[in-house]
């Protein structure tokens, strides 16, 4: 029989679990053995072989394979028809060497993909979900994958139901099961058996894996885990694909594609030039330019770019996670760089969420409380009349009964459990010599109406003797609205002046940056107490008092706010707290500059049309008494202004606002599982400062990517240009150099692209931030990575470098050097020119702006590239394969230092005349 048809006692018995203690260690092991882990079958990962072979489908590799085919053909032709074994061998070596490079490239790509996958999996793992479960007599938080059948789980608002459960206790429990039933509204749950056969959506005593708790609390017994759950049965249909490619990756992909087309055009062009120069269409005329064509095909594509890009993005994400900002998709790295608004909660993010009641007003009297923190040591002192007997017992009792927190003494230290606002009241109670346990001896707890940030209240219903009472606590303005009288000197008082005094007190507390919380009660009938609806219960309250609670601001936040403001990122506080508290804290943290700054309240937003809200969002930095749905409206209006918005949230109702934001930010510790699920960024330490660091990381990674793209493309332009110049203008043999000799051999070009240029480019991806990166404006999200002088910088620098390589080649020929020597001169001019240029490329301005040793990886990479490129000119094996030749010392010195000139001269002019285009 299905579990929903059984009485809860039957289900409990079936799993042999004690509902007071939960499963014990042996039972857990046994259940796990029986039903396995609580995991859905993993998405099939691509096999290693498939990953390896994937790189052969890359467009670049296809071009290179084409080059191999051409080289083989050329070799065959030379041996077979021209009897030119020198040429034949050269072409053969070329073909083999390119093939080897393709294989090395495939291994590199494979290695990169696997390590990227590992980083991503590690990130995913950090993003695991947790559940509260009763085991061995204690409630504990465990990874949701560790749940077993028979476990007793506790689900509260904001939790996911992580397995299929049969509810055995519910307290106003409401659950959203839209992923299974399509029904978007919350469903109330109960514990009674359902006798008739029903559809999933009507099984109101069951909870299903993947649903979220939108209200109340429940205790359930796990009846199915992993693939045996209802979700597991349909999991294959809805497995989410998270691996979206980022806009940057798309841009680069498009760029490579375009460059391939350009490359095909250039190759066709060289063949035509060859034919024209030879004056006839013959195999000989084609082979005369074939080596140049192959070199050109290789030169025009930035081979290493896509691989470097994806690895830099993933490693960037891993680095952010190390700094406590966990991002969930690579897209966010880019978006972070253009974030222009950070809307943050107050409590816990900007403040410490360590609450202490320092003042309260009750029964018409003011009190001050000493002692900060959760140690219940301190005195309550009357401010109204020091002589008078304390008369705060009704207020303290309300605050303790309407309270789910606890304070336990563990090894001489007080350890708080529960919500900090409630802990503050528990501590206050103890300072007054009262505890909830004492009160429960005379009060029987009947119902709890949990706190929600929409209502901003929480109530309990208790039975005292034959009387039923509702105790309520919540935002004072809300409670005042719901009240009919105040308790003043033990009497009910309905005078307007007393009400005004109460309101003034609340405002005064709030002006001092204190969080305010009012307490009240109401007498109920038995029927109301047992069956009354929430809306009918929380009304006609008698106010007993209000507490002023200090929640100290986090010290480091002020500096972070300033850094973000300097980076032209607006910081906005959106809080559920009182207007004056919000303003005072915002002022203390530098979010607003005036003590009278404008604050918009939730009710005002409610009355505004979207157009009205649009008109004020850009000039408002503090919103108070806001409900979660207001957050979403604020995000949307800011986005209409073209702003890129990061929005924090911790409660379950914040999820839509987080999804609407460009960067939804959830708290890793205090946040609910549902908010974490809808977020793009999870703050593992809940700290606002982490947002600032993540924004800075995002900007740095983007700038680095931009730098290496620029550097790589400059090389390509230089290579293509030097080869084309050779083809067009080196039409008469000079000295020992035949006019068909290309400026660079294909293998030299490959060496540059894959070694001497790629290695430093890769190091550019790891560069530290340029010192003023947080003084700049956020990047325009619509702007391509190639915009803003990127192209002009690439073209101008590349053209000058290309000219230089060609001139070096002609100069070498005129000096009487051999073909190989002249090509080696050209090759080294290019390599060393680019190794100088890389120091310029790493700055958004010029190389003079940055310490060249600031990135040790880059220095190492440059030294490696410089030395290895020198070695390939003196090691005979490479001489044969690559067509290099040893040079004399003076020539080595010339090719090492002369190519530095363009970089230094252009950068110098740029510094002096503030030119931007190169
Ligand atoms: P933020 O949105 O910045 O985190 P917040 O935590 O103050 O701010 P809410 O949690 O929505 O926002 O609280 C709003 C108000 O509700 C508080 O100012 C307080 O008066 C009241 N409140 C908070 N927690 C409780 C609670 N557990 N029981 C009753 N009332 C509460």
Largest sheet: 10 strands, mixed
Which regions are unreliable across 5 or more consecutive residues at pLDDT < 50? 237-243
Beta strand %: 15-25%
* Category by helix and strand content: alpha+beta
- Shape descriptor reads elongated
GO biological process, one term: intracellular sodium ion homeostasis
Pfam families: Cation_ATPase, Cation_ATPase_C, Cation_ATPase_N, E1-E2_ATPase
Transmembrane segments: 60-79, 91-111, 259-279, 294-318, 716-735, 794-813, 858-878, 890-909
Membrane topology: Multi-pass membrane protein
Topology readout:
Blueprint lengths: L7 H7 L10 H11 L12 H7 L4 H24 L2 H42 L3 E6 L2 E6 L8 E5 L7 E13 L1 H4 L5 E2 L17 E2 L4 E13 L5 H9 L8 H32 L4 H17 L5 H18 L2 E3 L3 H7 L3 E4 L11 E7 L2 E5 L10 E3 L10 H9 L4 E5 L2 E5 L2 H12 L4 H7 L1 E9 L4 E8 L2 E8 L1 H7 E6 L2 E3 L2 H16 L3 E10 L1 H6 L2 H4 L3 E10 L6 H10 L3 E5 L4 H10 L10 E3 H6 L2 H8 L4 E3 L3 H13 L4 E5 L5 H6 L2 E5 L5 H6 L2 E3 L4 H42 L16 H11 L1 H8 L24 H25 L4 H23 L14 H19 L1 H7 L6 H9 L2 H14 L5
Parallel strand pairs: 9-22, 9-25, 18-21, 22-24, 23-24, 25-26, 26-27
Antiparallel strand pairs: 1-2, 1-3, 3-7, 4-5, 4-6, 4-7, 8-27, 10-11, 10-21, 11-12, 13-14, 15-16, 16-17, 17-20, 18-19, 20-21
The structure holds adenosine-5'-triphosphate (ATP).
The site of adenosine-5'-triphosphate (ATP) has 21 residues, from helix 13, strand 16, strand 17 and strand 20.
